[in-house]
């Protein structure tokens, strides 16, 4: 840190298993990646190339090389996995992971109907090739999954070999874990936490209020995802009780 | 594309007459322009320097040179045209176009009252100098133009020499084609399309939901404008059915 | 300016005492700072490193050097001052200002309870070391300070040695001077202006509608703050009557 302040909550350091931050890159240029890493690379644990943006992004290999040089793993958004699955191109997807030297992958069913046993098979097959993040929750605001189902799916996906399970939110933060308004489905989150260890969960929380809510519930070292590149530094200050939103909260605790 | 996926809607390629994307640059630096072009230049068909931002932007000539080298035409926002007209400086405006080597220009009346015949005269005069885009629709949310008038104005402006007509939305997407809430005036758009060929129209649609709506109505190769620089890649995935919003839609079609 | 337009409101130039623009940098990289200064440096009078972002920003000294070379003063957000005060580390805060060569500082009580006499003592102590901006208004949307109190506090803080007083808004623009919805507390602002000279006030106004409102009330050369880096050019056009929002307004006046 740049100077000394007393009573700052302890933060985990890299390689983190809790307290990690997943950034959503939805089309950064190489220089923009360099800029983000220069200023906030220490606080970025993993990067998702949002949905299927990798399909149309120029200089993809050069960009992946920049992340690799910084020791930051990258995975392709779950929608891309689904795009391959729905076209019956799973083996092509596996080749893409190899060709681009990717060591992480996401398995999801936010936009397709996928039998849950079949989803778990994909997880366990891919887990032999890469580290798998699996995602629970639909991108369709109409599809409300009850809490016991979230828990059941998360548990079986972890059992199938997922490294972590992701709670869905999209870039906008208004589906899955959240209501249309962006408000957290609090009962859902609290019920999940009674059964699934929090270090196994990556909560997508793109909006500041959502990040604050999770940090107050779980602490500085909650795993948060879908963070926009220019919100990494602000998020870090919220984790440390150094922004108005959590200022009081941590003073009482540390 | 970076890998192969089956059943992807066909996209037009440059030089496009349909399916083109107009980006709004409201003050990018030269390096930011370079970054945008590096990552998404193939998907950008024309750039608008929003409203009168060109008046206060430093290094304007150097910036225009970067776009020119990439083969991407640039035009100055219609509000600037209006600023010259309202000050009775039309010939000065023509000189500005020359001095900066601009080959496209916008004629609009979103912020001024301009007799429609007079507007068409400006279009036909400028059409001898540059390629003209003319814009229909007011920036004033209170001024509702009925559909028959939109059609009449669009047609006479095309007859006067406009290359394409633009449906107004502003940077925010809440006037002209859209309601205060950003919702599309669907009846208006559908009625326009019964009379004006869609390849002659450039729909300003800055919000994602607006882009999705037009793509579902008209297809992947609809002309869309006022796209923010960091939304070019996301828009391209929506056009291709590779983001949640149009994922199902195109699968049924291709 | 890049070309000549008649009837443009006169703008102050650097060093400005009115009409100045304060930008909020919440974690720009060095290259992003360079880009912002290249394109809009002439319109930026002072930069705030938002709240305590300076605590976690890498290469802080190098970044400050870029601002210094451009002749643009930088200060650390008031929340950082409060973080030191609440930990009883005021003298450490003074050392931080020295160590980083800062010539401006903010004194605020947006997130802490601070006796007002004590606040004024901090202002007068710091005023011997640096130029002080003091801020009035809470970050807590529930805490409504009545107008007479705003005025009393602003006046005593100026008397204590503050160079300018800041009206609080946060990055989001929905507390302090503004209602939850972002709407200006008009009566409050107008009452303040009956007592405090407007050149002594810096109004935080991150949202476009807020900027427009202040410009229409006070004029092109109102002091505005919490401007996002990519909104500096747009703001400049609003000040000059060259965006739809103030287009008519200034035509009648100039």
TrEMBL record, chains A, B, C:
**Listed InterPro entries:** Aldolase_TIM (IPR013785), ComA_synth (IPR003830), ComA_synth_sf (IPR036112)
Q: In which family does this protein belong, per the annotation?
A: Belongs to the phosphosulfolactate synthase family.
SUPFAM superfamilies per the record?
(2r)-phospho-3-sulfolactate synthase ComA (SSF102110)
Ranges that cross the membrane:
none
Q: What is this protein called?
A: Phosphosulfolactate synthase
Q: Name one Pfam family in it.
A: ComA
Which species does the entry assign this protein to? Marinoscillum furvescens DSM 4134
């Amino acid at each position: 840190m740049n100077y000394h302040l007393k009573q700052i909550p302890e933060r985990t350091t890299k390689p983190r298993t809790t307290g990690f931050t997943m950034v959503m890159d939805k089309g950064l240029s190489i220089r923009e990646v360099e800029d983000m890493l220069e200023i906030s690379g220490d606080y970025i644990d993993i990067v998702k190339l949002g949905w299927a943006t990798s399909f149309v992004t120029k200089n993809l290999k050069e960009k992946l090389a920049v992340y690799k040089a910084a020791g930051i793993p990258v995975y392709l958004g779950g929608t891309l996995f689904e795009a391959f699955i729905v076209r019956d191109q799973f083996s092509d997807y596996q080749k893409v992971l190899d060709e681009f030297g990717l060591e992480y992958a996401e398995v999801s069913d936010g936009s397709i109907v996928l039998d849950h046993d079949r989803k778990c098979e994909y997880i366990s097959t891919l887990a032999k090739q890469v580290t798998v993040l699996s995602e629970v929750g639909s991108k369709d605001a109409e599809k409300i999954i009850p809490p016991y189902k979230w828990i059941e799916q998360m548990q079986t996906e972890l059992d199938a070999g997922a490294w972590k399970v992701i709670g869905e939110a999209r870039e906008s933060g208004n589906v899955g874990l959240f209501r249309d308004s962006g408000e957290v489905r609090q009962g859902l989150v609290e019920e999940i936490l009674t059964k699934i260890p929090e270090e196994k969960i990556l909560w997508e929380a793109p909006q500041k209020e959502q990040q604050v809510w999770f940090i107050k519930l779980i602490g500085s070292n909650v795993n948060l995802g879908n963070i926009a590149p220019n919100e990494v530094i602000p998020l870090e200050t919220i984790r440390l009780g150094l922004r108005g939103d959590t200022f009081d909260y941590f003073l009482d605790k540390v």
